[in-house]
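Appendix B.2, paired examples.
Example (i):
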Amino acid sequence: MKLGRCVAGAVLALGLAGGMKANAATFASFSFVGPTKFSLNGAGVFSVSTVVNFNYVANVDVAVPDTLVHSADLVILGSLTPGTGVSVLGTKLQPGSVASFSITGNDAGDLPYFGFNLLSGSSSGIIMAGSAASGGINTTQPPDSVAFTSDFILPSGFGNERSWSWSLTDVSPVFALTGALNIRAFDSSISGVFAASPVPEPGTMAMLVGMGVAGSLVALRRKRA
């Protein structure tokens, strides 16, 4: 597959709400509270340590404790692959990975969630993409490896199809590529959703559908590596 076609598929994927989830269903989300912002530095390393409002989403397929909003500390550490940025129709894209993220309850009055792991994980492959002052970070298993852990959801609740989509807003300075083909440093607000396909109960047929869009994303990483 030619690079241009891979990038076009990636741009299309990032423009489709929920398009990376396949059979997976949203089970959690978070919104930015602040004050610390998401930050991408000049070396392609991105991080955030801030406060968010987190909630589990009611879902018949994923057993969760409630759907209330929980104040939590969000910590993320990841990086972009150097020199792999591309620009298509004004959208800047660059692959990378997330070494770790964690969302931990921080309200002493919010029991039993205070001090516990609401959700954490990592991903072997992500795509950061954006135009002007907004963008996002997306990942999907398959084709990449996406890990989720939680003190309140059993491992079987995450199944084999997993994804997240983090939105970056109020990006400053706006998305641009450097001469070394890297997305330049910026700060932004962040929010996000998480999806998974739980392991089916005995007797339930669950067909895992291949994703052409996901294939385009991984091809982009491989072509630009």
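Example (ii):
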Amino acid sequence: MLFSDILAILDPSGHPIVLTGHLHPDYDSAAACLLMQQFLKQCGVNAQICLYGKMDAHSDAVLRKYGYNPGALFAPVPKNAVLILCDCHTTTQPGKVIACADHHPVIEAPDMPVYLNRSASSAGRIIYQEAAAYGLQTDRETDFLALSSIYMDTRACSSTKFQEADKPWIIETAARWNFDLSALERDGLCLTDLTQPVDLLAKNDFRAYTFGKYRVASSCVQAEKEKAVPMGTLLECCKSICLSESYDYWVFLCYIPLEKITDVYLFNRDENAWNKTRHARILSRGNDVIPALERMLIDR
């Protein structure tokens, strides 16, 4: 059990306890850290959130909309800190990793004292479930963070990442607290502001990965209609960044959530070419697209 295992190994010598997510955190990564912080506080443990990189504009805006200050979640990691990872299983943050709560498939599990990684609609939902199972108190705020993390991380419950078993809990929780699910659905679509300069769009929701000798970059946009996306100039900009920053591959995803379409564009540096595949469903980048690419590269 996540919380009992974490509490059993926490160092009583007073090392700072830091909660952090993946580089360039999204809404779920921030919500998972906030949930972990609140639940650990119930256990008498004070933990600091130290996100890093840059949050995407939409996640930032939604957090602010619901009364959170995203800027307050970014801070340098204190010296001699121990780390608990939320919504990721690796980090470049300084400090000793003692635990993680993640929901992204991995080929080889990292070596750390407490490792929890299972399929779930969101990392926030995992932490919420683990806290409830341990007997910690939930309230309106923890319920909202967990529920909203699901909507924000599954394209409003339409992606392959969404767990159908969460539906009854969502319905009951929304009714109990009078949460506006229609508003969360609009937020969860994560529609991109396509009026931004193309260089910003090209790195929208940017992620970077290293698989063996290969360096991979990825970004994505979400649009109401395919024709609204300046795809030609976007791909040229992604290609230029890929070559200038020495990535081996660039994965660019274009989501059309209202039509349940995911277009996956893969640039191969060696071939200097893009390959496009269209999928009649909302794929999860972290659960479907990137793991498939990792398996392909490892097989090479």
